[in-house]
């Protein structure tokens, strides 16, 4: 499943910039492809009227092919990833959303078994609580990807699903917008996922994950329930490893009973005994020398939402914070770096300082794309820092001090 905030982070990390030349997407070839698709098996549930209404005046969008073909050039360390996705702004917004929608979230939990704070965690990571929905036409993007580039068979299935959503009247055509790859709504479902998991929680006869927050939250819970979420179990917890413990073979998939981990010498991060809240767990070590976690089946359901352990950990940590105590509780073990990552507010501050030094990076939007990284490299080189284009506390501190 594609996603909102994660997709935006991946785009920034890949070095995206608007001047990339799009590959050709010939309109005549596009039209011939659409004519072939409307009679194919994948589109047999789509009426001629629906297909024509959605595609008669449609032109291909070559810019999505640039994004499809781009290979990432920059990999975010887990501490940078979490610094952006679980920053103070998102925690504060998450607590507001949790409080606002708690009655509905409790009803959703009764129906699905999924804890309210976990649902809010997904909502926050996927679309920043509905603030980042994406503005591309799903029909145009998916039609283009169905006719050009890689993975056409996959995108044709999603294109057909998008047309079925329109045909059934769940989402208005002008509201069916999202990411370049077709994810949409408050919690960024792909159209096929929508058809399998979307829920009409508010009872208006439509499954509307764009404008109905209750529908979106209930649909997210339904997805996690379908993925095997277990009622009443935590996603996992941070643990302390015994001295000299070999983590080279650590895997969240290699689950063992909690008693086995106790016998191996693991405790909670504060040194207290492991609880009996998980029947079995696997060991997750995102970065050697950093925090370690025992994670259970519910962590796997978060992973299934978008196949990234860092992503799942971001949801897990955000879910711990949005419905918990008033003071933020970070992981006990520090990340193995002497240059921690920046929050979105700090990224904006860094960009403002770069703009003040004459770097042409656009606006201070908190997204560290290729132009910002080139400016960072120039400042790192000038200041004698490691020249890697990474936004971190060291550079921000030097620029704050007038360096």
Give the tags:
403 residues; two-stranded antiparallel ribbon; Lysozyme; 18 helices; mainly alpha; Helicase, Ruva Protein, domain 3; 7 strands; disordered N terminus; single chain; 3 domains; five-stranded antiparallel β-sheet
Describe this structure in words.
- It is built from 18 helices and 7 strands.
- The protein is mostly helical and about 400 residues long.
- The longest helix is centred in the middle third of the chain and has 16 residues.
- It starts with a helix and ends with a helix.
- The N terminus is likely disordered.
What overall form do the CA principal axes indicate?
globular
Beta-strand percentage range: 5-15%
Low-confidence regions = 2-8, 10-19
* Computed structural class: mainly alpha
Average pLDDT for all residues: 91
Number of domains: 3
Strand order of the largest sheet: 4-6-7-3-5
Write the layout of secondary structure elements.
Blueprint: H1 5-13, H2 27-37, H3 48-55, H4 63-69, H5 78-85, H6 88-100, H7 102-112, H8 116-127, E1 136-137, H9 138-147, H10 152-167, E2 177-178, H11 191-197, H12 213-226, E3 236-240, E4 256-257, H13 258-263, E5 267-268, E6 280-284, E7 292-295, H14 297-305, H15 309-322, H16 344-356, H17 370-383, H18 393-400
Helix pairs in contact: 2-9, 5-15, 6-8, 7-12, 8-12, 8-15, 9-10, 10-11, 11-12, 14-15, 16-18
